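Chapter summary example: a protein plus oxa(dethia)-CoA.
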Amino acid sequence: MQSSKIAGIGYYVPKNVYTNNDLSKFMDTNDEWIQERTGIKERRFADRLEETTTTMGVEAAKIAIERAGITAQDVDFIIFATLSPDYYFPGCGVLLQREMKMKEVGALDVRNQCSGFLYALSIADQFIKTGMYKNILVVGSEKHSFAMDFETRSRNVSVIFGDGAGAVVLQPTQKEGQGILSTHLHSDGADAEILAMFYPGSHANKWMPEKPGYPDQELGGLFMTTEQLESGAALPYMDGPAVFKKAVVKFPEVIKEALKANDLTAKDIDLLVPHQANLRISQYVQQLLGLKDDQVFNNIQKYGNTTAASVPIALCEAWEAGKIAEGDLVCLAAFGSGFTWASALIRW
Ligand code: UT7
């Protein structure tokens, strides 16, 4: 069976830079706290009116398509991962298809938050392996800034996330041992409400835990109300320490699973590109796997956590910086809301 390879890669980040000190003008936070707990120094926020999740995805896709040596007309399938879509529906896939004037190809939207790009990559890999498609565009893009609250009540969430997009073009390769070696996908919905945005939603409080700190239960049951908006119930909710504890277990687990499936060890990894959730999480995973500094790529310092976009942005930056050469073993891994987690091993 043929494999799939990344034939082209690109990323786009908005030009507006917000430092930690900039955020401290809106809420009770400070550079020291943010850097110490997360490693983040600054992040990018999209232009409020001019840029959307789709338009940023388009910019990243243009670069990936050009580097793959094809045109937008050659793309025969689109997979778009995001948790911050332009519309509640339809998804960003069709909007990108329209913006890029692509043929009437299939467009699939993936909603797997931080591991969305890896889920999308895995789906694309299966379609290439079966011979169904030859040029699949996989995009991860986020405009978090539109739904973030810059008041102190939301500081544990708002200081972490940033905007941006990354994209790859997947093509078949006949070269023995090259390309995506394997992908590994997991989920456990037991803690779905630990990191979530509950509104707008049809849940009518069915799943909402009755515990202090969760959005006001009185306000549930309706799609979206002014009261929900005003009270902050419609904002993203995160129990950071609980997410952290789970992440440091699941990241190493899914990386080891990928290595074992390919009869490899951590020593064989040339570059680990983890989802940029928190620099402390990456460092912990690095230590646990016994990886050297030059075996792990992090750029959360500059962009914050860009969820579905973080892996392709980091992968592209690493590649552009010459940190990935042909034949290198690259490991991608992600963990996030759901919880969902995933990994991929690629022979570049
Ligand atoms: O991509 C997957 C998505 N998310 C993650 O991976 C997040 C994983 N979790 C984390 O990264 C960390 O839990 C956070 C960075 C979110 C928080 O760090 P923490 O060390 O777990 O802090 P904490 O939530 O336990 O809060 C400690 C203190 C609290 O004050 P008190 O109660 O001790 O007085 C918070 O109110 O820090 C306070 N705090 C802040 N202070 C200044 C929370 N956010 C901030 C802030 N600035 N931005």
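Key point: The chain is about 30% helix and 20% strand.
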